[in-house]
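Q: I'm writing up a methods section and want to include an example of the input and output format. Could you take the sequence below and give the corresponding predicted structure tokens, formatted cleanly so I can copy it straight into the document?
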Amino acid sequence: MEGLKANISEIEFRKIVIEFALLQYGKLYEHGMNGRDSFDCAGLVWYIYNEIFNINLYKSGFGLSTTTKIMTCKYGKLTVFDEGIITGKLKHIRKGDVLFFHRQSLRDKMPTVNNKYPGHCGIYLGDRKFLHASMPKSKVIISDFTKNEYWLNVLVGNKDIIGNFLKEDNGSHIKKLEL
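A: Here is the clean output for your methods example:
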């Protein structure tokens, strides 16, 4: 992809992110891992964006968890959803956006007013589906908001890294990537 930025549209970049993300489907979940063969949720997101755009989503963010660091990093435009609003959340999310969920543990059923920081993240694939590394002793999976409304209920925000990155970057970060 090096040198091709001027010739590739944002829509095509979103397709590239989705295609690369889907290559991670079925790989092992392992807490604290961020690549090649195993991931946790933030590690999966970090790996995808690092491999395509050569950016470290942890570096400029703050917080204790790597998910929070991705949410607060300098890359992308963050949208945080209002408490309790479920309808309309997905209409502003674009393919390849990072999704953030309030989920600190499996016992944590709903976000609270006092805690907007995420405990889980994934990549939006479109058609109400997203890719994520969800559970220990599991694999990278695809979940569907239509079939499991839990995820829609705990969705607290999204971040458009692709659109913002392409506007602000001169192309120097983009890696050559063979799919």
